[in-house]
Amino acid sequence: MTVDFLIDWFSTIGNFPILAFILAVVISGIPLFLFMALNAMVAVYAERKVSAFMMDRIGPMGQGPGLHAGKWGLLQTVADAIKLLVKEDTIPQTSDKLLFKMAPFIIFIGAFLGLAAVPFNSSLQVVDFNVGVFYIIAVGSIGVIGIVMAGWSSNNKWSLYGAMRSAAQIISYEIPAGLSIIIPIMMAGTMNLQTMIQFQSGSIWGILPNWIIFNNPFTFLAFFIFFISAVAETNRTPFDIPEAESELVAGWMTEYSGFRWAVFFLSEYANMFVVSGLAVAGFLGGWQSPIPGMFDSAGWGLFWFMVKVIFLIFLMMWFRWTFPRLRVDQLMHVCWKVFIPIAMFNIFGVGIWKLIIG
Amino acid sequence: MGVVQTDQMVLNIGPQHPSTHGVLRLEVMTDGEIVSQIKPHLGYLHRCFEKHSENVTYEQVIPFTDRCDYLASMNSNFGYVVTMEELMEIKVSDRVEYIRVIMGELNRIASHLLALGVYGLDIGAFTPFLYMLRDRERILDMFEYTCGARLLYNYMWVGGVSHDLPKDFEKICIGFLDYFEPQIEEYNNLLTYNKIFIERTADVGVIPADVAISYGVSGPNLRGSGVNWDVRKDEPYSIYDRFEFDVPIGEGKFGTLGDCFDRYWVRMLEIKESVRILRQALKDLPSGDVHQALPKKIRPPKGSIYRRTESPRGDLGYYIISDGSPIPSRVKMRSPAFTALSCLDEVSKGWMISDVIAILGSLDIVLGEIDR
Amino acid sequence: MYKYFTNIYETVNTLWTGMRITFRHMIHIKRDNVTLQYPEERWPRPERNIGFDHKDYNVIRSRLHVDIDDCIGCLKCERVCPVDCITINTIKTPTRGEDISEVNHTGETSNGTKKAMVVSRFTIDMSECCYCNLCVYPCPEECIFMVGGPNSSKHPIDYEFSQFDRKDLIYQFAKKLTPDQKKKLESPKPEVEA
After folding, report:
1. Contact, B71 vs B31, CB < 8 A?
2. Number of separate domains in chain A
3. How far is B145 from chain C (nearest CA, A)?
4. Does A50 fall in a domain?
5. Given an 8 Å threshold on Cβ–Cβ distance, is B164 in contact with C57?
6. Is residue C106 scored above 80 in pLDDT?
7. Beta-carbon neighbour count of residue B2 at 10 Å?
8. Alpha-carbon distance B49 to B69, whole Å?
9. Nearest residue on chain C to A316, judged by CA atoms?
10. N or C end of chain C, less CB within 10 A?
């Protein structure tokens, strides 16, 4: 959308199609990158505070004179970022240096490209693909290559274990996630995220908003399967076995420090945002207002979208600070023996439902 | 093209690793995720406790016993002073005995809380760990109130205790117990009954009773295997025969008898039993002088003695040889965590790396005591 | 099949129970918070009444302090220390219980005991100290103690005594004697070594 709009606008100035395309991409890409950094900062702060409150602590706080982390520790993540940027960037001597340096960028690209298709509101979306859902799912799995590269090139046994676990896990959980996201596609009859969201306008039974999650029991179930698979895809507890702190020290990130590690962190939180955004667009009505017919201007649309995404991210944090982690084989068990059968059953059920009720 | 290597991989877990509970190095032979052999390497925390003891007087040994099992220093002191008193044939007053039992049981709760919390951390649950540490902190506050120290107390002396209880200690302690008992249910709801936790621990790392006995495993680890053996009950020392309490044993609640969950669950039940003992002890705490039986000079007669007590980790035995001088000729400590670690190889063969961490955590080892 | 579904139900049920607990703690953070913002807030040191007669026995384990004017140089604390972090050198005074003004030596302790020794060196290496409190009990003059506790009126609690250099943790309590003064004191009789 934004890119298309910019290209159109440039074409009114003059006829330079290639330059216009590049300019449009850069102009819309920079704010996206800034948004990604901001998202990571806010999310890290929120994660610290949420975890602290759940554990009866108060988290980062700044008090008293001198250097401190601002009121309520608001500057804590800024300080963290500065620390990471000025930190010594160590590369292990026996590592595969080219791959070691490339890995963070590949992971970053995966997250960044995913963010490009997230529909913030009816017009604020960098690119509106006609296969938006498919695109986000496809781009989301680029990160696996980076993770495997990071793990292999570090030349560290922990990293290798982490990378292999991560690859197995992410590839497995793509399947239930994909099978569940088919359901909104079936309901709306499109892969385009904007059309899918517009399909969810109005209300059902007069009270509930006409979101796909409330449409029928199968979609309700599908949302949870998709969301839990998304949690697994972003490597967060209870599925954080690739970076299981008590087992693998830090998994595939063990040898990374400084800015490279910060990039991993940035990507993790951007990934969380992307998968939450997809869940919101697919099941929770995207930027539609929860009260049908009210607050549905474009500005409110952005607000509702962010509220829903932040709620899902909070849910992920809530999971993380409550649950223990699964073992590798149990993780696979949950994926192949629980989620995939139920997801397939859901597709069947939704098909029947659509056939009978319409 | 080279030949594909299909050897087993050696993985060093530790000495710097988040979940080896100290500085332990495990040399693990792995085939992918599956572990085929574990060699524990000890000695990173060796501080020559036994050799030190041969060069200091009997009373100076007590601060060193603190530092062996630093999570249950009171119980370490307790074992030593009980042994010394039997060697010197000192009869301490009832108040001293009651204070010792109160302190020992409080420290048992504190130690078990840390063991359970850290076990949750090993499995990946962070929050229960902090809840348990929060409550442990209150116990440490009570210790600080009583003797000034929070971790290494040097509280029990041969023939007495260093300080009498503060005047309002009973009230504080009862208040703590009233607060604490409902918390146990919360831990259970948060961690113990969590399905993921059960899946991770039940049926994992089974120690059958005969294996446990042949390796000399003791304490909650042995009771988790279904063997009813508690020194407090079977060879009562101090005044443990006056209290009414049960010895919880594992029953395979969610899996096989003697698995990680049983060992965890036995500790949880033992906390409840300790609370029971504490309530009884606080109720009939007699008055008296805690320094009345202190010997002028600790100079035991020639001879030797072995006495064991129940520390939170198991049978803590002291073997003391006296040659009649004020300096012990030999002090040997039989450490329960050492024997528990010795069965790690046998138990964790064929399990995954994640399970090795879970098994190691369920054994509740303290490296300070293993290396001494 | 039945077990499959009960398993799923149990999982969801128990996980939801756990989530409820953490959520409850999160919304009641104001009530449940246990964090202490350390440099600004400090844990109140409970008023201790340790119940028996020896009021000056300490129930706090912090920095050791010696009231050197009360020290009679009996070496009991040095002997009892399990890690040998206390070192005391003494010089015998010519007359027992007499002030020696040039070295600021007082002849009597606050308890009235007449001193027979000038303590020429009293060092405690706090980096070695194991805070076992054993040196406090045998002192006949109760001059070595851990700061805070019942002595807090004289010496408030001090647990923040970290130093940049390890040497700074060796505390010197004896009054400084110049070599001349030392020689003069030692001249009648040879030094009494610890």
Report:
1. no
2. 1
3. 7
4. no
5. no
6. no
7. 4
8. 11
9. C19
10. N
What pLDDT does residue A267 have?
87
Q: Measure the CA–CA gap between A177 and A225, rounded to whole angstroms.
A: 7
Q: Is residue A10 part of a domain?
A: no
DSSP assignment letter at C61: -
- Residue A70 domain-assigned (yes or no): no
Mean per-residue pLDDT of chain B: 86
pLDDT band at A92 (very low <50, low <70, confident <90, very high): confident
- The predicted structure's pLDDT at residue C31: 82
Q: Residues C157-175, buried b or exposed e (16+ Cβ, 10 A)?
A: beeeeeeeeeeebbbebbe
Give me the pLDDT at residue C187, please.
Answer: 66
| Binary contact (B124, A321; C-beta < 8 A) | no
The residue written with tokens 């970076």 in the block is: A243
> Domain range for residue A324?
89-356
Which residue of C21, C48, C57 is in closest CB contact with B166? C48
Instruction: Give the whole-angstrom CA distance, residue A220 versus residue C187.
Output: 98
Q: Which of A321, A324, A329 sits opposite B123 (nearest CB)?
A: A324
Q: CA-to-CA distance for C98 and B78, rounded, in angstroms?
A: 47
- Give the separation between CA A240 and CA A244, rounded to whole angstroms: 6
Residue A146 lies in a domain: yes
Is the model's pLDDT at C51 over the cut of 50?
A: no
Return the closest-CA partner of residue B363 out of B349, B346, B343: B343
- Using CB atoms within 10 Å of the CB of residue C132, give its burial: 0 to 12 exposed, 13 to 18 middle, 19+ buried: buried
Cβ(B115)–Cβ(B364) under 8 Å?
yes
Q: Of the candidates B189, B66, B91, C32, which has an alpha carbon nearest to the alpha carbon of residue A56?
A: C32
> A-chain residues within 8 Å CB-CB of B17?
249
Residues B242, B233: contact at Cβ < 8 Å? no
Find, in chain C, the residue whose alpha carbon is nearest to that of B138.
C34
A102 touches A259 (CB < 8 A) = no
List, for residues B148-193, the tens digit of each pLDDT value.
Answer: 788 888 888 888 888 778 777 888 888 888 988 888 888 888 888 8
Q: Is residue B226 within 8 Å of B249, Cβ to Cβ?
A: yes
Q: Give, for B173, the enclosing helix (H) or strand (E).
A: helix B169-187
Q: In what order do the strands lie in the sheet with B330-334?
A: B303-311, B314-322, B330-334
Which pLDDT value is given to residue A68? 63
Quote ipTM for the complex. Answer: 0.83
- Determine the number of helices (DSSP H) and then strands (DSSP E) in chain C: 4, 5
| Cβ atoms < 10 Å from Cβ of B258 | 25
* Local confidence band at A356 (pLDDT 50, 70, 90 cut-offs): confident
Q: Please measure the distance between the N-terminal and C-terminal CA atoms of chain A and give it in whole angstroms.
A: 31
Residue C113: Cβ-neighbour burial (10 angstroms; 0-12, 13-18, 19+): middle
CB contact under 8 A, C19 and A50: no
Distance CA B348, CA B205 (A): 6
Q: Which two tokens stand for residue B212?
A: 């446990």
Q: State yes or no: pLDDT of B76 exceeds 60.
A: yes
Considering only alpha carbons, which residue of chain A is nearest residue B132? Answer: A55
DSSP, collapsed to helix, strand or coil, labels residue B304 as strand
Contact B209, B347 (CB under 8 A): no
Beta bridge partners of C91: C118
Say whether C19 and A319 touch across the interface (CB within 8 A): yes
Q: Which two tokens stand for residue A101?
A: 């340096």
DSSP letter for C123, please.
E
Q: Nearest CB to C21: which of B64, B148, B190?
A: B190
Q: Where are the beta strands (DSSP E) in A132-222?
A: 203-204, 208-209
Judged against a pLDDT cut of 70, whether residue C153 lies above it is answered with no
The predicted-structure confidence for A281-320, as pLDDT tens digits, reads as follows: 888 887 887 777 777 777 788 888 888 888 998 988 888 8
Q: How far apart are CA B49 and CA C38, in angstroms?
A: 35
> Nearest residue on chain B to A158, judged by CA atoms?
B11
